[in-house]
């Protein structure tokens, strides 16, 4: 999963070979874009590669049956980046397809693993994370938000589920494990199943990066042992990473190679200017032989985040392949798109900040 | 710890040999009755055999410094018995020695391990367990009560502490372990340390049966890793079991050999009549050579629960040793004492039931 092979022809919805291996190895389902009405950018362009138990969600969407979508975030002092945006985009997709929407603030985990105080967690959730989710398209009026530390039902569910997990299973899923990991993943399972306790037994979809699949497997195993009469096993839709502009597999705050939400014009300029592209050794050769958009981080940004219109993306792809555009002007175009994205984002973010006070958090 | 050797001369405060081995093996402190002002019946008669970090508690008592005593119970449909009373008696002792008193209702654990619903747990706590504690001498006006499932600070503390525990430590303390056990013992540790978060950093004493010492060790290990600046390591006072009348090591609800709180006159009669005593083969031999009160379950009941006055107990001991009283009349005496105890208990219990509504449970 770490080679460059994974950046593929944007026009096919083929899944890269490395991911296909992963999918096979872990018993995932291949994602099939044709199954979903009005697929979003990540579905159409194979950022979404896999899933678990997707049929029941497809059925719920098509038959307008009750189901839910759930995600969560660890409140911290660092910002979200474009890589994190994929999950939010998928949440927005399901919300628009009538999913009951749940977003949880993982403050028990951020306190335990990152020593972030509950006050600090609350502050950054209210002042940054939730407005960001809203700015990216989440409708807060149609969303249940909760803090883990305030939701007693989740704590109760975690204890109830604890007798369904075994240490051997932790070992087989995670390799070595420790008590803090055990308790965190039991809590995550309780979070994932909570909507079925809060409302009623119903299917649910969890959008995650494919690296998070072990948590999904564990949650499904535990839910299964409670008896299928109690819970629908949670479904998942799983995406590959947004690569960093320097060519690293994954944007990462800790590696300072991420485009943040929002980011400064200066950082956008610097990051894009030094981005790894699919360019040739010289401009002359590139004009003659064309570039490699499939290997280009700038093109990857267009594809995953900046250019919604398929024809527009297609044109850039062809112009690169035929040597019609060179990396310099293409980078400038990307910078312009990114700056515009950030201006829009900031505007929506400022508006969203005023909407947070109307949210009533679920406490029980 | 399972042989009969442990029933010792009541006049010495020597600790039985088996318990001495346990104390040495697990690095416990021998309990020394002379250190404590106004020692209670269990301290004077070596039901209490050991402890951890007792000096800091003795100092707090003598210098009138702030400290706490804490215990908890699993709410269930079965009743408490005389064996459980030892812990309550020790709690009453420390409450009378000005300890801040905490009693928790382990409803998260009773739900996880015994499938007892939260409603059922609440009902049995309010209608039976708390009135029983009050009837046995706990002053509810001076006690903080809480339900685990309602106390968010305990949940938070449990997560905070989870990063301080290691799986190896669980293995070395408990042998094999499983996720439900890990999460339960992290919760217990959070319970044990909660008063230092609820009020201020202060020493605390946990009265337990000596079989519960592993939990104390784990809690101390975890608290130590938080840094001694954060918590006083919890102290413990540890007692041996109240044997069952049939001679089993330990009264046990599940083995139906317990005198319950309250118990019926019929059950008291039946249990005492068939009790294992230290009598001789025939009345004649016993009149001549005397009995063995040190091996007698009836005498053990006098010693631990029924006869507070040392002179009165001494007289019975001598009368038995010299053959002056035989088992039949002694058993009748024990039955009379037990029936009186139950009458008093029931009267106090009925009164206590009306006091429960005034309790304000700690929720945070």
Q: What's the number of helices of chain A? A: 15
Q: How many strand units of chain A?
A: 7
H-E string of chain A: HEHEHEHEHHEHHHEHEHHHHH
Rough outline of chain A: globular
This entry's quaternary arrangement is: homodimer
Any low-confidence stretches of chain A, pLDDT <50, length ≥5?
1-13
> Largest sheet of chain A, described in full?
7 strands, mixed
What portion of residues of chain A is helical? 40-55%
Q: Most extensive interface: pair and counts? A: A-B, 29 and 29 residues
| Rg over alpha carbons of chain A | 21 Å
> In which order are the strands of the major sheet of chain A placed?
1-2-7-6-3-4-5
- Mean pLDDT over all positions of chain A: 91
- Distance from first to last alpha carbon of chain A: 40 Å
Indicate the structural class of chain A.
Answer: alpha/beta
Strand-residue proportion of chain A? 5-15%
Describe the structure.
Two copies of one chain form a homodimer. Chain A is an alpha/beta fold and 364 residues long. In chain A, 49% of the residues lie in helices and 10% in strands. Chain A has a seven-stranded mixed sheet with strand order 1-2-7-6-3-4-5, with helices on both faces. Chain A is globular and about 65 Å long. The two termini of chain A are 40 Å apart. Mean pLDDT of chain A is 91; it is low at 1-13. Chains A and B meet through α5, α7 and α9 of A and α5, α7 and α9 of B.
Key attributes of the depicted protein:
homodimer; 364 residues; alpha/beta; seven-stranded mixed sheet; 7 strands; 49% helix; 10% strand; disordered N terminus
């Amino acid at each position: 999963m770490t080679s460059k092979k994974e950046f593929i022809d944007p026009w096919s919805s083929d899944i890269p070979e490395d991911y296909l291996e992963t999918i096979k190895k872990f018993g995932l389902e291949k994602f099939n874009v044709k199954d979903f009405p009005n697929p979003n950018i990540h579905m159409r362009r194979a950022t979404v590669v896999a899933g678990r138990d997707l049929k029941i969600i497809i059925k719920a969407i098509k038959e307008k049956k009750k189901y839910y979508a759930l995600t969560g975030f660890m409140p911290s002092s660092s910002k979200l980046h474009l890589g994190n945006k994929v999950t939010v985009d998928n949440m927005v997709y399901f919300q628009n397809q009538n999913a009951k929407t749940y977003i949880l603030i993982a403050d028990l985990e951020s306190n335990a693993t990152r020593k972030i105080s509950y006050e600090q967690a609350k502050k950054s959730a209210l002042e940054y994370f939730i407005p960001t989710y809203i700015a990216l398209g989440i409708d807060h009026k149609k969303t249940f938000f909760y803090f883990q530390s305030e939701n007693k039902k989740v704590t109760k569910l975690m204890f109830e589920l604890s007798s369904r997990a075994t240490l051997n299973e932790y070992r087989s899923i995670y390799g070595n494990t420790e008590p803090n990991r055990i308790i965190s993943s039991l809590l995550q399972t309780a979070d994932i199943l909570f909507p079925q306790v809060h409302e009623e037994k119903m299917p649910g979809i969890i959008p995650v990066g494919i690296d998070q699949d072990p948590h999904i497997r564990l949650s499904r195993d535990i839910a299964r042992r409670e008896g299928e009469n109690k819970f629908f096993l949670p479904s998942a839709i799983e995406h590959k990473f947004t690569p960093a502009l320097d060519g690293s597999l994954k944007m990462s705050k800790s590696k300072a190679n991420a485009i943040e939400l929002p980011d400064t014009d200066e950082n956008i300029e610097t990051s894009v200017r030094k981005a790894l592209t699919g360019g040739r050794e010289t401009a002359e050769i590139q004009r003659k032989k064309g570039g490699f958009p499939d290997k280009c981080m700038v093109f990857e940004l267009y594809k995953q985040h900046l250019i919604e219109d398929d024809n527009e993306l297609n044109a850039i792809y062809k112009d690169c392949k035929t040597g019609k555009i060179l990396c310099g002007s293409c980078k400038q175009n990307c910078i312009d798109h990114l700056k515009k994205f950030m201006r829009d984002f900031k505007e929506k973010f400022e508006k969203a900040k005023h909407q947070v006070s109307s949210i009533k958090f679920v406490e029980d």
